[in-house]
Specification:
The chain is mainly α. It has one domain. The chain contains 4 helices and no strands. About 10% of the residues are buried.
Length: about 80
């Protein structure tokens, strides 16, 4: 499972580079606030799928607000526990 999470994280990194909605420091800070990312496969996979959707729906949303929208959607889907 850890290998799958690493692959998802690498995929997200490639996609972020292509679209650049998030700066590296924003991502590092957000990840520290969301310890489920990268350790919980279901939440991480859901987040990555939602990131793609959010980029299509709100292309101007970027940075920490973009990541916070992802966190909110994950919380809605899985509950508010981190």
């Amino acid at each position: 499972m850890q290998h799958q999470i690493e692959n998802l994280t690498k995929q997200l990194e490639r996609e972020k580079t292509a679209n650049e909605p998030v700066q590296r420091q924003d991502f590092i800070s957000w990840k520290a606030d969301n310890p489920w990312y990268g350790s919980d496969y279901a939440k991480t996979r859901f987040a990555i799928r939602y990131i793609r959707q959010l980029q299509r729906e709100q292309p101007d949303l970027a940075g920490r607000p973009f990541l916070d929208a992802v966190s909110a959607k994950v919380s809605d889907q899985f509950g508010s526990s981190r």
